[in-house]
C-alpha cells in the first residue's frame, strides 16, 4: 500500500535514534531509503516513495490501520512538537530539532523494551542489536513472508535475503527456556541474570506490565526500578519507548555530554512539558551524529 504523510517521518533517522533495535536498513542498489521492521510478531518493509511525503509499505491497508499506524504513532503532531523547540530561542535545541526532523517515538511492546534496555547497559547500539538478534534467533518464533510480501520485495529490487531468517522477539515464556549458557552465547554478559529474573517475574505475576499502564508517571518509574537490574536510565527508556510516556527524558552518556556542555545549570524541562522525551531524542540524535 502507499500513504502520503505530511508530518515528520524519516525512516533512517528513526532507525538510528536509539529507541529501536530491530529496524534494519535494506538496500536496493542505491534506490530510495528503505527499512525492514520487526515488531509485534510482524514484519514490515517500508520505503520512501517517488514523491516527497509518500511511502510504500509491504502491508495491507487493514494491517496498517490495525497495527502499524499506532506503532509509528501516526496520530501525533511531531511537526507541532518540533516547532516548540524551533521557536524556543534555545539554539542548541532548535538546531537539534532541525537535525532530528522525522524522528517519531514508536509505540513498542513493553516487555521487549524492558529486555532490550536491560541489554543496552554499557553497550553500543551495534552490540545491542547483535545481542537482541541472537536472542531472537534462539528463542523467538520464526517469521515467514507471505507471497505478496515476497513479491513486494522482488518488484522493488530488494534482495530475497532481506526476507529470510527473521524471528519475532521472544515472550517471557520463551526467554525462561534459555539456559545461562544460551544467554552468555548471545553476548549478554553480566546482564543475563537480569533478563532471567525479569522473564521469571513476568511469568509469576510479580511484574505486571499491563497493570503498570494505569500508573501515573512517578508511580510507573518507581515500579520499574523495583525490577532486578533496572536503574533510572533503563526505567526511563522503558517509560518513553515502551509505555509511550512522552515526557520522560532518559539520560545516557550522550545526553550527559549534552547537559554538561550546553545546560550546566539544568535543562528547562518545564518549558517542554509534556514532550521532554521528544526533545531528548532530538538532542541524542544530533549529538551522536555530529
Description of the molecule:
The chain is an alpha+beta fold and 290 residues long. The chain has a single domain, classed as Endonuclease III, domain 1. Helices cover 49% and strands 9% of the residues. The chain contains 16 helices and seven strands. It has a five-stranded antiparallel beta sheet with strand order 1-5-4-3-2. A two-stranded antiparallel sheet has the order 6-7. The protein starts with a strand and ends with a helix. The model has no long low-confidence stretch (mean pLDDT 96).
Percent of residues in beta strands: 5-15%
Instruction: Please provide the count of β strands.
Output: 7
From the helix content, strand content and strand pairing, which structural class follows?
alpha+beta
Helix % is: 40-55%
Shape: globular
Give the termini distance in whole angstroms: 35 Å
| Biggest beta sheet summary | 5 strands, antiparallel
SSE series: EHEEEEHHHHHEHEHHHHHHHHH
Major sheet: order of its strands? 1-5-4-3-2
Low-pLDDT parts are: none
List the helices and strands and how they pair.
Layout: E1 2-4, H1 11-15, E2 23-25, E3 34-39, E4 42-48, E5 54-57, H2 61-71, H3 78-86, H4 91-99, H5 110-119, H6 125-139, E6 142-143, H7 147-155, E7 166-167, H8 172-176, H9 180-185, H10 192-204, H11 209-212, H12 217-224, H13 232-241, H14 253-262, H15 269-272, H16 276-289
Antiparallel strand pairs: 1-5, 2-3, 3-4, 4-5, 6-7
Helix pairs in contact: 3-4, 4-16, 5-10, 5-13, 12-13, 14-16
Amino acid at each position: 500500500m502507499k500513504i502520503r504523510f505530511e508530518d515528520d517521518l524519516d525512516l533512517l533517522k528513526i532507525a538510528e535514534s536509539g529507541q529501536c533495535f530491530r529496524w534494519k536498513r535494506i538496500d536496493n542498489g542505491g534506490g530510495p531509503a528503505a527499512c525492514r521492521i520487526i515488531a509485534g510478531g510482524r514484519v514490515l518493509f517500508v520505503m520512501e516513495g517517488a514523491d516527497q511525503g509518500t511511502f510504500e509499505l509491504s502491508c495491507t491497508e487493514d494491517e496498517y490501520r490495525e497495527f502499524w499506524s499506532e506503532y509509528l504513532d501516526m496520530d501525533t503532531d511531531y511537526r507541532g512538537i518540533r516547532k516548540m523547540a524551533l521557536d524556543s530561542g534555545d539554539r542548541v535545541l532548535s538546531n537539534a530539532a532541525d537535525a532530528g526532523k522525522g524522528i517519531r517515538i514508536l509505540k513498542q511492546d513493553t516487555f521487549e523494551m524492558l529486555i532490550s534496555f536491560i541489554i543496552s547497559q554499557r553497550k553500543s547500539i551495534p552490540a545491542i542489536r547483535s545481542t537482541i538478534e541472537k536472542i531472537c534467533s534462539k528463542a523467538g518464533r520464526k517469521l515467514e513472508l507471505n507471497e505478496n510480501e515476497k513479491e513486494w520485495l522482488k518488484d522493488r529490487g530488494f534482495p530475497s535475503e532481506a526476507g529470510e531468517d527473521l524471528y519475532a522477539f521472544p515472550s517471557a515464556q520463551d526467554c525462561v527456556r534459555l539456559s545461562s549458557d544460551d544467554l552468555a552465547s548471545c553476548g549478554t554478559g553480566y546482564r543475563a541474570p537480569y533478563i532471567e529474573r525479569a522473564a521469571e517475574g513476568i511469568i509469576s505475576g510479580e511484574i505486571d506490565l499491563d497493570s503498570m499502564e494505569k500508573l501515573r508517571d512517578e508511580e510507573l518509574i518507581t515500579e520499574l526500578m523495583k525490577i532486578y537490574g533496572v536503574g533510572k536510565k533503563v526505567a526511563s527508556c522503558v517509560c518513553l519507548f515502551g509505555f509511550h510516556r512522552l515526557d520522560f527524558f532518559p539520560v545516557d552518556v550522550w545526553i550527559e555530554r549534552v547537559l554538561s556542555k550546553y545546560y550546566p545549570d539544568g535543562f528547562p524541562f518545564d518549558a517542554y512539558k509534556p514532550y521532554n522525551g521528544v526533545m531528548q531524542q532530538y538532542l541524542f540524535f544530533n549529538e551522536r551524529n555530529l
